[in-house]
Amino acid sequence: MHHRTQGTGANPLRRDADRTRTRMRAAFALICLLAVVAGFALGRAAWTDGHRTAENIARHRHTVTATTVGETGYRAGDQPSSRPVTVASATWHYPSQRAHTETIPVPAGTRNGDTVRVWVDENGSVAAAPPGPADIALNAVGIGTGALAGIVLAGGALVAVRLRVLDARSARAWESEWAGVEPLWSGRLRPGQGAGDD
Questions:
Q1: Strand runs (DSSP E) across the chain, as ranges?
Q2: Is pLDDT above 60 for 181?
Q3: Which of 116, 108, 32 is nearest to 68 (CA)?
């Protein structure tokens, strides 16, 4: 008992298990702080990398004016749950006078002979537009938030497991101590003790 009462502000009723619980809570708070820092750092890195990638893609993509040469139709979206896309055959010239004709996505209500803007690669084939600032920001926020949540969940799970083990150990120790104290405290006879035994 003497070792429990030493130190500044020591409480003789505070057990080692209580100290361990306090350390585990402090460790979880530190994990949360580190998760915020890591999430911010990864999000910022994704933002910077996304801008660099978008600039690189933009150097090799161009917009051209295409003229629709057919009626619009519908094509299934890229994902099974996405809505159908309005498409039409269109023709354009890129590079210089090289003609291209492909079926491209067009705004709803486009008629034969209307002009639309289309992104093409250096060969003149249809290509996706470079990622915009909103796409880059969404990706950066997703990566940062995912890292933060992953670290907090993993750290929280480890702390929870440690606390559960600590609680089980404390319960066993308490039962063992109570088994020795309870007969004296309550005045009940222990197994093998006679009425006149002390």
A1: 62-68, 73-75, 85-93, 99-105, 115-120
A2: yes
A3: 116
